[in-house]
Amino acid sequence: MLIICRVFASFQSFISFFPSYLQSALVDSSQKPPAGLSPTQYRGVTQLSALPAFSDVLKKLSAPDVQAWLHTDTPEIDVPALWDVTAQLTSVGESLHKLLLIQVYCLESC
C-alpha cells in the first residue's frame, strides 16, 4: 500500500500512517490497560494516539458502542469512528483509519 500512496501525490498525507500500521506492537506501555483492552491492544492504542487524527482515542474507549465493538467477533464490520471526525476524509482516508483500528483490535483477538 505504501507504494500506491507514493504514486498518487494526493495521498502523501497518509504516509505517516504506515509506521503505526507496521509497528504498533513495538510500543512499550507500563500503564494498566483500560477495561476491555489487553495489554498488547493498549500498546497499539497508545501508539495510535500519537497520530494527530487519533489524539483523543484513549478518551473515546469507554463509550458503550466502542466497548461492544471490542467484544465482537467481526471487528471489520461497523468500525467506530475513534479518529477526529471534524477532518473531512476521502474514502481511502476513512479506510486507512478503520484499518488501523482493526489492526489494534486484532493484536491478540484475531
Give a description of the structure.
- The relative contact order is 0.17.
- The protein has 110 residues and is mostly helical.
- Helix 3 packs antiparallel against helix 6.
- It has a domain at 39-110.
- It is built from six helices and no strands.
Key terms:
globular, 0% strand
- Specify the biggest β-sheet: none
Mean pLDDT over the full residue set:
76
Low-confidence stretches: 1-9
Q: How many angstroms separate the termini?
A: 21 Å
The count of DSSP E runs of length 2 or more, i.e. the number of strands, is: 0
Order of helices and strands: HHHHHH
Helix coverage percent of residues?
40-55%
Structure class: mainly alpha
Task: Identify the overall geometry.
Answer: globular
Strand content: under 5%
Contiguous helical run count: 6
From the alpha-carbon coordinates, what is the Rg to the nearest angstrom?
Answer: 14 Å
